[in-house]
Amino acid sequence: MYRLASIAGVVLFAGLSISPPAYADCTDPASPEVNWRRCIFDGQDFSGVDLAQAQMRDASFRRAILDGSDLSGVDAFRARFINASMIDVILDGARLFDADLTGADLTNASFVGADLGSANMVGAILVGADLTDANLARTGLRNVDLSGATWIDGERVCAEGSIGRCN
User: Fold this and answer.
1) pTM, full prediction
2) In terms of CATH architecture, what is 24-167?
3) Which pLDDT score is estimated for 23?
């Protein structure tokens, strides 16, 4: 009996020393590097939070409020920010490949070095946004308001009334 208890104790102790793989916990508070993969936060208010380097792949933020938040370096591959309010948000270096930002208000947002390849931004508001060095390959910009936005070359500022393309 004593020997069996000792073996069980060793097995239990050994099990505690091995870290299990990290899985998303959608109840974790907003913080840098949080893992929110496949989580749903539709309609929630995350104004002014620091989510730098967060994992947001396949997450949903429909109609969410992220105004003034730091999302620099996030992995938001295929994430949905449909009709989200993202005024003054920082998305520098973010991976937004194939993300859906349809109708999002991204006024004064910073996308410096962000990957927006194949993202859907139809009807989004990018007034005054900074797109310096952003990847916009195959990005849907139909009806996007780019008035006053800094274009990907970091030099050209889009004229007032630039809809769907930088004039």
Assistant:
1) 0.85
2) 3 Solenoid (2.160)
3) 59
